[in-house]
Amino acid sequence: MKQLVLFCLILITVLSCKQLDQDPVTADPLYRKWKLIETKSRTGDWETASYQSVIEFRPNGRILNHTNGRPCCSPVQVDRQLNTLKVTQIYACPEALCVKLSAYQIVSLTANELILDSVYEYTNLNGHVSMKYILMN
């Protein structure tokens, strides 16, 4: 009997710890999985994305990259301030020289579509690339 009670207590402890690792459910449409479909330069028109990217924004600020391998210089952590996602950490590859992406600006966010502008530090690239994502199922 003591072993059964001990087993139940251990099981409850393990299950409750697992639940603490998960982010809380949120109604904010940003915190979903998004697939890149189009990009646009500052002066150009929308074009079909030349590379595949699937990212997921988490309420704790983490950005999960669901594409094969994490691209060099890609953000892995952001701090959300209204419609600005300030980049606080990037994935830096030793062989790459990264142009510092300081933030993403949310241009449009609906239940099915996300448009972001890139904001770079110390360059004239601000707004150089806009990215259009659609919601992944």
Describe this structure in words.
With 137 residues, the protein is mostly beta strands. The chain has a single domain, classed as Lipocalin, CATH 2.40.128. Helix content is 14%, strand content 42%. Strands 1, 2, 3, 4, 5, 6, 7, 8 and 9 form a 9-stranded antiparallel beta sheet that branches. The longest helix is centred in the N-terminal third of the chain and has 19 residues. About 4% of the residues have low confidence.
List the helices and strands and how they pair.
Blueprint lengths: L1 H19 L12 E9 L5 E2 L5 E4 L5 E3 L8 E8 L2 E8 L9 E9 L3 E8 L8 E7 L2
Antiparallel strand pairs: 1-2, 1-3, 1-9, 3-4, 5-6, 6-7, 7-8, 8-9
Notable features of this structure?
single chain, 137 residues, Lipocalin, 9 strands, 42% strand
Residue share in β-strands: 35-45%
Largest sheet: 9 strands, antiparallel
User: Which parts are unreliable, with pLDDT below 50 for 5 consecutive residues or more?
Assistant: 18-23
**CA radius of gyration:** 19 Å
Distance between the termini: 46 Å
Q: Class, according to the CATH hierarchy? A: Mainly Beta
Organism: Larkinella rosea
Protein name: Lipocalin-like domain-containing protein
Task: Describe the structure concisely for a colleague.
Helix content is 14%, strand content 42%. The protein contains 1 helix and 9 strands.
